[in-house]
Design goal:
With 368 residues, the chain is an alpha/beta fold. Helices cover 45% and strands 15% of the residues. The strands form 2 sheets. It has a 5-stranded mixed sheet, with helices on both faces.
Length: 368
């Protein structure tokens, strides 16, 4: 599918894993153009942009306020709506609950799609964003985001950190030589490079490809997305003609006596501290497990971005309203405020220790 032609809802439904969805209403609206793919909580603030393909999370359609929110969406200028009903609901129950929504969507010629519960919205968004048609706004790039590919072979956390840091350093040098200012940050899953003044897409693509080759960053370890100012559309960085060779010399790791990971490791081994950490994050973990949420990941990115709402929203591919809704949930479930320095410190430590535990759990799985 060419990115030079507009993506409409019908075409989006041919892209895995969205191809497993079924259209239940608004068939005449399948020609609506899709300009962005947005994940929005239901219910949430009434915020949607024209031509958004909306994927609703926590859409328990048994709740009246959720059905009201869905009715608002099908009357909005969005391109279409993707719903994943809870798995415990029978098909007949779903049809009964959505009967009024179906008739409303047909009147508005607004496509509504049911998607199996087990399909992750993040996978839908990841596969559709690169297909969006470039616009005049996307000729400028504000941020380049590289997402770590979890199924890219036997690469472990140490490999990722080494390559990502080497890439960030190479990009810094190349950008400086080209007269472009860039600031990069590395998390467990992302490399985020923010350009102080938006550069052209061709310039950023060239810098990213050159930095990837120079640092020996394996192509299969990361997928890139370029974000323009104001979040208009995303564009992918084309792979290099030939795969880069691995670096001949490993990037040295600073020998600091007590870094954040060592500090978190000490707390992890202390029973009382560990109990506090588990108690802090458990409500978020339970929420994510039972309602297919991403509150723990959202908190991680938010803290990585020093609670900068705009930067965190970019990294999570969310609009500000959806991120603020998640923050509200995090604070309500934990009873802690991100505006309070003491509470924020407790959340920060809890997240870092949780990351260590998760890496220890995932490690044996990857070894297998």
């Amino acid at each position: 599918m060419s990115r030079d032609s507009p993506l409409n809802v019908a075409a989006a439904l041919t892209v895995p894993p969205l191809d497993q969805g079924s259209v239940i209403a608004g068939h005449r609206g399948l020609t609506h153009e899709v300009l962005w793919v947005d994940i929005i909580h239901a219910p949430a603030e009434s915020f949607v942009r024209p031509h958004d393909l909306v994927l609703t999370t926590d859409a328990d359609i048994r709740q009246a306020d959720v059905r009201e929110f869905l009715a608002y969406l099908v009357s909005s200028p969005a391109a279409g709506l993707i719903i994943s009903p809870p798995p415990e609901l029978a098909a007949s129950t779903v049809r009964d609950l959505l009967s009024s929504l179906v008739s409303l969507a047909d009147r508005h010629e607004f496509p509504v799609v049911l998607l199996p519960w087990e399909i992750a919205f993040a996978d839908v968004q990841k596969n559709l964003l690169p297909l969006l048609r470039p616009s005049i706004a996307s000729a400028q790039v504000e941020m380049a985001i590289g997402r770590r590919e979890r199924d890219a072979g036997d690469w472990n956390d140490g490999d990722w950190k080494e390559f990502a840091d080497a890439f960030a350093g190479a990009l810094q040098e190349l950008a400086s030589a080209a007269g472009v200012t860039v600031r990069s940050s590395v998390t467990d899953d992302l490399v985020m490079s923010h350009f102080s003044s938006a550069a052209t897409k061709s310039a950023v693509t060239g810098l990213v490809e050159s930095a990837q080759r120079l640092s020996g960053f394996p192509e299969n370890l990361v997928s890139w997305v370029l974000l323009p100012p104001a979040h208009g559309h995303a564009a992918t960085v084309a792979p290099s003609v030939s795969p880069p060779a691995p670096p001949s010399v490993s990037t040295p790791v600073p020998d600091s006596p007590v870094g954040p990971r060592q500090f978190a490791e000490v707390l992890r081994q202390h029973p009382r501290s560990m109990a506090t950490i588990l108690q802090t994050l458990q409500p978020l973990i339970d929420y994510d497990r039972t309602r297919r949420g991403q509150l723990v990941h959202t908190l991680e990115i938010l803290l990585n971005e020093a609670t900068n709402i705009s930067a965190a929203a970019r990294a999570l591919y969310l609009n500000r309203h959806s991120l603020l809704y998640r923050i509200k949930l995090i604070e309500e479930l934990t009873g802690l405020s991100l505006k309070n320095p003491v509470d924020r410190f407790q959340l920060e430590v809890s997240v870092r220790v949780h990351q260590i535990n998760e890496s220890r759990i995932d490690g044996p799985r990857h070894a297998e």
